[in-house]
């Protein structure tokens, strides 16, 4: 580093205590932690009651957990001076709110470090508590409260939402209590191609009432701005959207539509397997061997897979599976068609073909036809509004599954909702260390840092 200019070591600046209104007066290195003795820089010797100048009386100490350096827990021991007013005898302490909130056990820099670790580093709360040398409950309560105050409760967080995705999510795999929640996702960045989706909220339950009540809590101007709602085939979400967002267009996304067709194909394959062999599929059975090949798009099949299907459909034994597979492939090709208008025509013809004239023996296709006929408008609406798939919603669900595994499970739904919003709420650009300008503007606007 030939061009570098070195200055005198300054522990106050290195530990970023100058932004907290503190100055380091000593240090103590222990095997499991480091302790920094600090004093408050500002004297604060004017009486808050009568306005007269006070005189020093004595000092008290206050301990705060600070951000770790080299993953060594750092503790701040603040020497806080007390003053006594010469006129009214009022006694007060130096103001330390720049260093930490009242009665807090963690400094503001420590809270920021923990929040960045949770949101950006995807650390577990146990790892954050270990890094600051505090108990898990202490770290959890303080960091989540800071996350709610600075990020989750931001009044502008829901601004600009035009496309919403809604789906159910299993938040805990136990038999006790309600284990389902409703997740609401902002799909506007995905549709506009400006970024990934983000989690807007998590609501307890998976019913029409849960989604309807959440929409009713939003102001009318926000609801009027919603253009599209992407969802699965659950009628409760559809009804709630119709009642609370009458001008919004409901879209049944391709993921769930193709999944319905795939389920029909699996049910047909299992039924034919039982009718022909009298048992479930086993190794060596043609239908069982081709179970994955049947779910592969026709344009992605290899030569070997083509030969396997030609052999499977050579006779009339598997004609029901062949018919169901043909409908499945037509639906996939409709979604993959480069011309949206032509794809819409193809999907409409599939729905019309399944609506009537399907033989009674093809029970799976008849059931699929009834479902698609009821939701025909929602299915076809996707072709008029591309990139409004609920696939990003499933991606957020996957991130929440990872979060639950990282934390080894959750027992408190309130903590889970807060952690889920911090994990998938789109807050990383505000906290990412390489986005300094955006982070500084955000921090100053929220009154986060004083430096």
Automatic annotation (TrEMBL):
- Membrane-spanning residues: none
Source organism superkingdom: Bacteria
Pfam families recorded for this chain? DDE_Tnp_ISL3 (PF01610)
Where in this chain does the record put each Transposase IS204/IS1001/IS1096/IS1165 DDE domain?
A: 164-419
Matching entries from InterPro entries are given as: Transpos_ISL3, Transposase_DDE
**Where does this protein have coiled-coil stretches?**
none
Q: Which NCBIfam families match?
A: transpos_ISL3 (NF033550)
| The protein, known as | Transposase of ISAar20, ISL3 family
- Organism of origin: Propionibacterium freudenreichii
């Amino acid at each position: 580093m030939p061009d570098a200019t070195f200055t005198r070591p300054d522990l106050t600046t290195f530990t970023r205590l100058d932004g907290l209104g503190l100055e380091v007066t000593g240090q103590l290195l222990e095997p499991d932690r480091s302790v920094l003795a600090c004093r408050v820089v500002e004297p604060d010797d004017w009486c808050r009651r009568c306005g007269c100048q006070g005189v020093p009386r004595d000092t008290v100490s206050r301990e705060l957990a600070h951000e770790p350096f080299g993953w060594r827990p750092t503790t701040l021991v603040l020497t806080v001076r007390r003053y006594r007013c010469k006129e009214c005898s009022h006694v007060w302490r130096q103001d330390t709110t720049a260093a930490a909130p009242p009665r807090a056990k963690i400094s503001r820099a420590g809270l920021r470090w923990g929040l960045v670790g949770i949101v950006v580093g995807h650390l577990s709360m146990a790892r954050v508590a270990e890094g600051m040398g505090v108990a898990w409950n202490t770290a959890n309560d303080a960091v989540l409260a800071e996350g709610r105050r600075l990020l989750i409760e931001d009044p502008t967080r829901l601004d600009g939402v035009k496309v919403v995705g809604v789906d159910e999510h299993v938040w805990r795999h136990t038999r006790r209590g309600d284990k389902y929640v409703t997740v609401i996702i902002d799909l506007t960045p995905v549709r506009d191609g400006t970024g990934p989706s983000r989690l807007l909220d998590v609501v307890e339950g998976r019913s029409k009432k849960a989604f309807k009540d959440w929409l009713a809590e939003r102001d009318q101007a926000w609801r009027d701005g919603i253009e599209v709602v992407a969802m699965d085939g659950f009628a409760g979400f559809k009804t709630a959207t119709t009642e609370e967002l009458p001008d919004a267009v409901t879209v049944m996304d391709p993921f769930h539509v193709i999944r319905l067709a795939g389920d029909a194909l699996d049910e047909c394959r299992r039924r034919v397997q039982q009718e022909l062999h009298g048992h479930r599929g086993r190794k060596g059975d043609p239908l069982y061997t081709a179970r994955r090949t049947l779910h592969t798009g026709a344009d992605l099949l290899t030569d070997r897979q083509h030969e396997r299907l030609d052999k499977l459909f050579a006779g009339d034994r598997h004609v029901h599976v062949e018919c169901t597979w043909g409908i499945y492939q037509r639906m996939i090709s409709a979604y993959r068609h480069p011309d949206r208008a032509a794809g819409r025509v193809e999907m409409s013809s599939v729905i019309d073909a399944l609506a009537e004239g399907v033989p009674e023996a093809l029970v799976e296709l008849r059931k699929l036809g009834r479902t698609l006929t009821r939701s025909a408008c929602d299915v076809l609406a996707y072709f008029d509004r591309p990139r409004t798939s609920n696939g990003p919603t499933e991606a957020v669900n996957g991130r929440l599954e990872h979060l639950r595994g990282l934390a080894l499970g959750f027992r408190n739904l309130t903590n889970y909702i807060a952690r889920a919003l911090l994990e998938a709420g789109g807050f990383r650009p505000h906290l990412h260390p390489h986005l300094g300008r955006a982070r500084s503007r955000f921090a100053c606007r929220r009154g986060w840092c004083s430096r």
